[in-house]
Amino acid sequence: MTTIDNPTVPFTRPIPGHLLPGRKMVVKGAISPRSDRFSINLKCGSEDIAFHFNPRFGEQKIVRNSYISGKWGHEEISGGMPLVRGEHFEAQFECNEDNFSVELNGKHFCNYSYRIPIHKITHVNVDGDVTISQITFVDA
């Protein structure tokens, strides 16, 4: 298990080790009372984004997508908006054989099928109106 404590947003850090089926990334933080949006991105180097997780409070949806070779893919937006401005949250991203399983505050929110193989993911990035207290990588 590896933990990143109180990183300053925006930030980008290498993921310790590799993402493999069974491994989890747990993000704990607080959403600004006036937050419009924030994003948690799992990146492949400096350009491609394997998983873009983007709560948008003005639109009341959480967009999931990938950015590959300079182009955004198809947005997935089902599931509504279980996160609340001004509140703490915990987001868990579990690597499965063919998708990420996402839990928000202990409840299953969605699955997101891999569009880039997970072994190519090298960095985690967080940006926007959010404060992160901890990111933990839990081994399988």
From TrEMBL:
Keywords: Lectin, Repeat. One of its GO terms (molecular function) is carbohydrate binding. Residues 11-138 form the Galectin domain. CDD domains: GLECT. It comes from the Eukaryota. Pfam families: Gal-bind_lectin (PF00337). SMART domains: Gal-bind_lectin (SM00908), GLECT (SM00276). InterPro entries: ConA-like_dom_sf, Galectin-like, Galectin_CRD. PANTHER family: 32 KDA BETA-GALACTOSIDE-BINDING LECTIN LEC-3, GALECTIN. This is Galectin. The lineage of its organism: Eukaryota, Metazoa, Ecdysozoa, Arthropoda, Hexapoda.
